[in-house]
Amino acid sequence: MVRAESVDVPDGEGPETPDRLRRRASRLLSQLSARSDRLITEGLARADGRKWHYAVLASLEDHGPGSQATLSRRTGIHRSDMVGVLNELTERDLVARAPDPDDRRRNVITISARGRRHLRRLDKILDELHDELLAPLSPAEGARFVDMLTRLLDHHAGSPDPT
Length: 163
Description:
With about 160 residues, the protein is mainly α. Helix content is about 65%, strand content about 10%.
């Protein structure tokens, strides 16, 4: 039933959208999130990048090497999905796996020089995509908007999922 509703109005907004829907923050955030996700996914794909790849590379660059479990916690990528992400990154020589000297049962993942170059390229692309996403806002408004989103997310991050 929900799927049929979203097919009826592809963009989710039209001249007949009731104001009470247009004023709901949850609905607006959901729609903006979907559009943002599409913009970022398509933009990164043009540069042979993926959101999860970016998250892992950024984590390794910012916080240093880590195990699969550590990277999963840092990025929010489920541990079972992390294996595939790391396999892809390893195949592309963007990260390296080495046995952990303290625990041979696990690997330590590090970013490679090629991974650092790829991350810098993806950073530039994401900067451009975010400028496109926030184009209707002034730079100051964009910064405030990101601050407000961060506050909202931080506030609700510890809340149990209502579903």
